[in-house]
Amino acid sequence: MSDSMDLNRRSWDERASLHAASEEYEVGKFIADPRHLSQVVRFDLPRLGDISGLRAVHLQCHIGTDTLSLARLGAQMSGLDFSAQSLAQARALAQRCDQPIEYVESDVYAADTVLAPGAFDLVYTGIGALIWLPSIERWAQTVATLLKPGGRLFLREGHPMLLAVNEDYQDRLVIEYPYFERQAPMVWDSDQTYVETDTALSETVTHEWSHGLGEVVTALLRQGMQITALVEHDSIPWEALPGQMSKNSAGEWSLDKDPWRLPLSYTLQAVKAG
């Protein structure tokens, strides 16, 4: 597992500057407009509610655009990531936006060694994060350890049903990849990242794991968390199935044909028993 994590860390280190320079992450808009929020956070504003004054941590924060958005909504933010280069970009963005955010370097499973256990009102995990973790049980342990009694988890993630679909087919939905968590990772080899860039990656191999929706819920329940909301969505922030999707009015991507066929993402909330 450590080999997989090291391999993925190198990939994210290489991607960090490319993502910060891309239009998709909107770094320039964050700097120019102190009210600007990431599209991911804007999507879930009705479910987030008032977070002003809360002590919050964003796990797997990458270059910090969602972290900064939550800080602009009034939360006292910390961000955690295992990629030093991602954190360098996150700190630079926070500094340019004059926003005090604590960033710490660690993998998720060791978060309680760099952050105070039981200190947070809110743990936030943004979309596209869980697939980089081999064990959803260990993730749930981290969430419960960091939260205060009565504290809340807020998770937006790609739906595991979507992640089981082979995106190479552009005329139909073909289930080809794991839905449930497996010990062996899915191994991918590509010199491209998911933003527009002319730069090819040298760290091309990555390892990913799927986690079924029931597995996520059950892992949280085993840690004494109470599920308070679970909403499945027919949209996702990126073109997950090229040739079969279009952007909707909210700026997310939905299936062109019969979007009711497939859940694309979900938002889950849970509270630590007090």
From TrEMBL:
One GO BP annotation of this record = methylation
**Source organism superkingdom:** Bacteria
What Enzyme Commission number does this protein have?
2.1.1.-
Methyltransferase type domain location is 58-153
* UniProtKB keywords: Methyltransferase, Transferase
One MF annotation (Gene Ontology) recorded for this entry: methyltransferase activity
Write down the InterPro entries for this protein, in alphabetical order: Methyltransf_12, SAM-dependent_MTases_sf
Q: Which PANTHER family match?
A: METHYLTRANSFERASE, METHYLTRANSFERASE DOMAIN-CONTAINING PROTEIN
State the name under which the record lists this protein. Answer: Class I SAM-dependent methyltransferase
Q: Which organism is it from?
A: Pseudomonas auratipiscis
